[in-house]
Amino acid sequence: MTRTRYLPDWVVLVVCCVAQFMVVLDFSIVNIALPSMRHSLGLSVDGQQWVVNAYALTFAGFLLWGGRAADLLGRKRVFLSGLVLFTLASLVGGVAQSGTELIAARALQGLGGAVLAPATLSLLTTTYTDAQARARALGAWSATAASGAAAGVLLGGVLTQLVSWRAVLFVNVPIGIALLVLASQALRPAAGRGTVRVRDLDLVGTLTGTTGVTVLAYGIVSTDTYPWGSARTIGVLLAAAVLLATFVAVEARFASNPLMPLRIFANRSLSAANGVAAMVGAVLFGAFFFQSLYLQQVNGYGALRAGVSFLPQALITMATSLSVARIVRRTGPRRILGIGPLVAAGGLVWIAQLRPGSGYFADILGPFLLIGIGMGACFVPMTLAATSGVAPRDQGLASGIVNTSRFVGGAIGLAIMATLAASRANQLLAGASPLSRALRDRALTLGYDRVYLVGAGLCVVAAALGSLVPRVVLANRPAPAADLSAAGEHVDAGNRIGEPLVVEM
After folding, report:
1. Overall domain count for the chain
2. Can you give the pTM of this predicted structure?
């Protein structure tokens, strides 16, 4: 019998990191291209907004399903399926001839990303069973994921200005094809997977959970058009609450193989880490969004210049994530989760002092770097805490939950921050006539300053939640040869092989 030969584990790391980077990149890469898309396809203002929202909604709504599908159907199979869908959707979006086609393609991209993202993390946590090797792998994964949003603005500006808005979608196609070739050789199929029955996928839980999250996200991102107190917004949010309550009831009492077994939240480390993830997502999405608006709308930066301005923040975030990966192996995640958010809070308080026309090197670069350091310090310990002590069969579920917490937290946080910023700006502009450019810029800047302070408060909450993570001692326990021979699944009947030992101190 011919034995299948797989590529080294470091190729698995490369595949997972590039795939995750591509998924995160597509949250921001289209932002600078939106004016060109609108002009080319005749998009309305609402249509332009939905080029972004269609991706975010489907991504947030299907993350849990993607994580559970990876556990039940096999991580390699789900990874490849998500990658194919993401790549094809990027191609369709690039050749779109109408706004409707583009928005539909972006929705399919979001679905592909929701399947792909949790599979990348669960593949790493089951491939790297040694504790120190896992921490290094998670450091590289977190660094590429953390820098993806800022890199998206830079790459989006370059491609839009030098090539075309279509290039921001086409760029995923060659990358996706290369990843498919590598992944088919590098990833090992899951061991011990039998035929999965339809009922094993918990269709009722999938329907209520994903629809509930999607409706919730829709209600939130629509608040720029329909205020929080409007009948429409209240109705949408109530519908989301009913769907999510039904989801919890199904998972707790009726599903034989639940999409999200509630037992997993008995793991204190996972629960606290997900709280941190929600806060970090809100701060990261909000700070990045308003930094971009300030540079372009107030300081008058062009698309390319604004993108380049984010490069130092992206680099320091990546460097910090890689450095923290080495530190967390000695200290455990709790201490870093208590420090990192506070560093970011300092940067947010600093940047809240900006005024129209503030200089980049004198006033902007410093807080940019401090925010990048603080956020970069959170990703590895947050991810490690969320997956520590979780059985291998639930790694996809755990990664799906932490990704859902981060991105849903980001959507909620951004919507709330946008409302606060607009409210503050409108208060300052009320009754002003004539409306000068200087007054408009001052009002916008003070609105942004308010949300930076809100973000600083969320960082303090994140640090408090981080203190609830158990102190973790990372132990290097070699796996028995019999377990290492299993392709892609590492299970020990007693203690989980390669998992950190969780010690309450």
Report:
1. 2
2. 0.76
